[in-house]
Specification:
Thiol Ester Dehydrase, Chain A; alpha+beta; 2 helices; globular; about 150 residues
């Protein structure tokens, strides 16, 4: 059974990114590594803008514990990509995001990433921090849907 394609109305925060000639592989579609770069960048762009600080300087930092992507349609060059972000879950020491990539006017995602940040002590990355830092919780809570 094919995975259901997410739609634009499922996301809360939006950014637009551009594709580059170098992003495209020999088959004419965006290389899978570029999807992960976009997902990582949009999550961290949101955190930086929403907190108003350099997130690398916090006492607790988010490390990527999981990342994945489901592909539904090709994304190519030169059209821009609209990237939607929503928090699926905000836990005690982690945040689970869904990141939708859309190209063109359609309502269905070309791809959707799942991205998990676990917050750890910046001096001991093996130790998760609980509770989630207030500045991060304040930045991601508005991304939760109903």
């Amino acid at each position: 059974m094919p995975a259901q394609r997410p739609t634009r109305d499922e996301y809360v925060h939006w950014e637009r990114v551009t594709t580059r000639w170098a992003d495209i592989d020999v088959y004419g579609h965006m290389n899978n590594a570029r999807y992960f770069e976009i997902i990582d960048t949009v999550v961290n762009n949101h955190l930086t803008a929403a907190t108003g600080v350099d997130i690398r300087s916090l006492d607790a930092i988010g490390v990527v514990a999981e990342v994945g992507c489901r592909y539904f349609a090709e994304v190519g060059y030169p059209d821009p990509v609209d990237v939607g972000l929503v928090a699926e879950r905000v836990g005690t020491s982690s945040v689970v995001y869904r990141v939708g990539l859309f190209q063109g006017a359609g309502e269905e995602a070309a791809a959707e990433g799942r991205f998990v940040h676990v917050y750890v002590d910046d001096t001991d990355p093996a130790r998760p921090v609980t509770p989630l830092p207030d500045v991060i919780r304040a930045a991601v809570s508005p991304l939760l849907r109903g």
